[in-house]
Amino acid sequence: MEQSVPYTVASLSADLRALGLAAGDVVLLHSAYRRVGFVVGGVEALVRAVCGVLGPTGTLVVPTHTPDNTDPAGWRNPPVPPAWWPVIREQMPGFDPRTTPSRWMGVVAEAVRTWPGAVRSDHPQVSFAAWGRRAAEVTGGHRLDDALGEGSPVGAVYRMDGRVLLLGCGYDSNTSLHLAEYRRPSPPRETTGSSVRTPDGAHRWVEWTDVAVDERDFPQLGADFEATGAVRVGPVGGATARLMSQRRLVDFATDWLVRHRH
């Protein structure tokens, strides 16, 4: 359907409040901005709308992952020749939370990453940026070997009883479901690596072992969770948005994975 009127900060704010987002919320946002439609002021207007609804006591969290800063031996889309692997590991710029752009996370996440007052965790593969009252608490202490687990920003949102907002995207983008993977009994693990920035401004390749994650069944998991009635669904601009309790989602997913994954 053709868009009849342009969306604005005011109209997007009204949509978000009607969906249930409220002042003081801690919310982890995943978004596909192209689904929203024409917005007066573009991405900036959308971020202003979300921050305005959350207010000075709220906290906005977004994924600012850098999947290109991973071991090239595991690249599949596209793969690179094995002869390139040592060069990539040696020459990849070290991750710097202040300057390294996210990749494939969308323009909204990039806007929040560079928003005045935003801070970012220092994981070289799966960092998160946050703005608001509890931003430093969300992003602090992000260990290499606990990328999406209890001590990660995802785990921090869980402890804060935060919410997840899917804006124009599906459950395959819902990073919080990975926390449930970490809670499985004896989850599979894998060794990975990244280039990190050293205090003297140089870089070095580091490796560590962490839980191996797999989002292939997340769409079905999300559909089953939604069937419980725990998700508020509504329009934000031209996009379909889904708002849910992250704690309720993760608890459901933890049980679901035990029953459905082998």
UniProtKB/TrEMBL annotation:
Reaction catalysed? a 2-deoxystreptamine antibiotic + acetyl-CoA = an N(3)-acetyl-2-deoxystreptamine antibiotic + CoA + H(+)
The residue stretches assigned to a coiled coil in this entry are: none
Instruction: State what protein this is by name.
Output: Aminoglycoside N(3)-acetyltransferase
Q: Which UniProt keywords apply?
A: Acyltransferase, Antibiotic resistance, Transferase
Q: What superkingdom heads the lineage? A: Bacteria
**E.C. numbers:** 2.3.1.-
Q: Which family does it belong to?
A: Belongs to the antibiotic N-acetyltransferase family.
Cross-referenced SUPFAM superfamilies: TTHA0583/YokD-like
Pfam families linked to this entry = Antibiotic_NAT
